[in-house]
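Quick one: structure for this chain?
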Amino acid sequence: MSAQVVIDGLIAGSMIGLGAVGVTLTYSILRFANFAHGEFIAWGAYFAFAVSAGLGFLSGALTQPIGPFSFGWSLPIAAILAMALTAALALVVDAILFGQLRARGAAPIVMVMASFGAALALRNLLEFIFTSRPEYYTGSLQIAVRLAPGLRATPDQLLALALALVLAVAIHLLLTRSAIGRAMRAVSENPQLAGVVGVDVRKVVRMVWALGAGLACAAGIIAGLLVQIRPTMGLDLLLPLFAAAILGGIGSVPGALMAGLMVGLAESMTVHLIGAQWRAGVGFVILVAILLVRPQGLFGRSV
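Got it. Here's what it folds into:
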């Protein structure tokens, strides 16, 4: 396996890992598999695209490339606003749909089916607003720089890896060193007992939605920057996200991030050894294999 396959896999895995964190948090705390999570990736990417385009319209100087990168200051500013907008969207969806079902004591399978409906509605609404035509944050072309013999990467790709690492460390510190992180872990273990000892379960639920959606937005922006933006991008990433969440262990944020990198590497190896047409099946194969061999994942408890 060449070094280039590794770097390509790590880049793809960084997007998968960030998205998988939201999946594993939602499952461990809200107790259902949210199939609408992939749509937050797409909505986040389009939020950033719309805000960046608006800022570029107001000031062309904001679109001038920053150093070796292909984008200007409009994109980093838009990314911050897009993460907030995506978190707000997730909270609205929860208030309108999932919160109502929780209040009525809906079974997990009802929540899962509702997430399917929410995914379809969000995806079609996104396509109605922006059409199905692919979009790009920038039209600038980048030349891959030589990092080592047989190993090349663009500045945007290296930035994506660095950003994923920074976000991973930040989330780990939030969950292990902050009061809200301890509350989230308590609710994950036993929601009823956590409420008895004074944990604000509703606040934790809102934090989970906002945090998961914000990370999904970051994954969408990275995917849009390195590939393209399209309404179905979240759907395309959904199976790898669940594969990474289960491989890492439900409830384990570091496990989801590490498993995302592993899934990305597996996809990259498949493209290199077999062909790109088989890439979509890698997540499914990993998912089935883990459920059969080690259903608790690498770092978590049984699903």
